Amino acid sequence: MMTMHRRVDSFLVASTLVRGALLVFAIGLAGCESCQDERGASTALEQADESEVDRCTQDDECTVMPISCCGCPSVGVARAHLEEAVRAIDSPPCDCLPAPCPAVEGSCVGGRCVATALPEPPAAALTGVTELALGARHACALRGEAIVCWGAGDHGQLGDGTTDARRRPASIAEALDGASSIVAGDAHTCALHGGAVSCWGANGRGQLGDGTTVDAGRPTRVDLPAPVQELFGAGDRTCVRLASEPTMYCWGEGALRPEPFTALGNITHLSLGPEVCGSGAEGIRCLRSGSPVAMDVPHMNADLVASDDETCARSQDRRVRCWAAGGSPRVVLEGVGALTGGGTEICASKYGRAECWGAGSSEPRPPPGVGAADYYPGPGFSCAIRDRTMAFPGAGRVQCWGRNGRGQLGDGTSNDQAVAVYVLAPVD
Fold first, then answer.
1. What is the total count of domains within the chain?
2. Does residue 328 or residue 117 have the better pLDDT?
């Protein structure tokens, strides 16, 4: 089912008839004014994110958008009122997308969408998280400019000055002013802060870029020739793109200090998966048998991510194309707004909900028991940030699921979890 929209100046107004009552909510994003669709009271318009806003055309007409099971205003509506509104929806058919709301999620029962309550977060839940980085058995989170880590610490990858495992987050030993991005390898972590990069954790293959092979439990500054614009990392390797030129520098996997990476030409995005791939003015290329090979993917503004098994790109046409090492790209999903990858999975955000594939399945599917969120798949465990971009109290909570033998789920236990649990706040 399609709905027409038109541009308004500073916010999206979505009007939804719910059992005869008009529910109006304002979303704090530039966007389009939504018209009631033909299904009347049985559906509600989903929240438009920035990628959907971009679909408005110059003649003030918006391209059509699918209808979801329930609207997700996220701001301007109290949790209780939102749940009440969602539960009032007359179980629309499942051909509408069952996009979850902040406090509820949709599921298909007998061919109808049914809203069910998600677990309430504990009072001690970690909040204010804007970015996550998942290693093999540890995780780190960016909260403003502060960094906290949890899970395995045997190589110092938590950055707290110890080699202890942490079952709930702990602050790193030294504050990094201006911290804006974090990445994690198997057992090391790096952060971009004020144009500089610091790393900590395992260093047996030069992962810290300090010219040694000695592990470090505290942030260690990487000597780079110019300020850094972007940070990439996976496995035992870390790479950066400089702000002054489209040049990549990489270290790890035996390179003890940063070295120029020019094998793929001038690139602006890089993925370190089953093969090294990059995108830039010359398109998307992957390094195969030491030589760059062009991929048949529309490359303008392409995002690149990778799992252990494949590399995926989201192009300006909002299609996701994936390929295995040595393989050719295939379209996996359309209408995608954001893309993440890691471990055995790739996850895509599509109209307010996530769909993931990998881990033995090539068919996109929703992750377990989380609802609308930003997803970070990892090796053996995965995490998600709830309401990452919102400003209300409690936004930026983190949920994780999967293996937990070293406390990598951050819930204070070492019990594996098939359904997502909330990461707890630091005790320090």
1. 2
2. 328
